[in-house]
Design brief:
heterodimer, A: about 110 residues, six-stranded mixed beta sheet, B: about 110 residues, four-stranded antiparallel beta sheet
Amino acid sequence: KNEVEQSPQNLTAQEGEFITINCSYSVGISALHWLQQHPGGGIVSLFMLSSGKKKHGRLIATINIQEKHSSLHITASHPRDSAVYICAVGGGSQGNLIFGKGTKLSVKP
Amino acid sequence: DTGVSQNPRHKITKRGQNVTFRCDPISEHNRLYWYRQTLGQGPEFLTYFQNEAQLEKSRLLSDRFSAERPKGSFSTLEIQRTEQGDSAMYLCASSLALSGYGYTFGSGTRLTVV
């Protein structure tokens, strides 16, 4: 079993829909990251969370440390949101991240 | 500061050749990480530096791989005697020490071994 599990693996939505991507992890962490990766592109950091909830524009990220679960929400989705969204957890002295396999989101106009 | 810079963006090489990639982190970041990402997978940790010291190496980093960070600034990742299985995106990231604050990724170097 992977240490970081994301669901769904693939998600297709219509423009304007509310989207939720889930992440569960099995290791102790100091922080959880939500990242965005466009095809052929590098990775952009969206959020770093250690507790509670963060909001940036149409993106909202929440984390429940006790349940070892985080969600990324996109409100009023748009085709430009189409990308792979990756959950990654960091902990320990190294600071390196353990990544989920990503959720491929496609938003249709 | 324009973020984490990686060069080259793309590299095609013949099997058996040596390749070297470069990463320039954000200047005030003392931690630098190398990850490898194969198609359809999330990135996997390879190694990391704090300043010039290489503090951790993954089992993925075979003897053919070597990384350096002279003077604690830019870093290079060299792969000797490349194999087709080395074809992947090689990602560099930097951050501030234990806080993980400012974790920033480069655009990656895509290696294709033919």
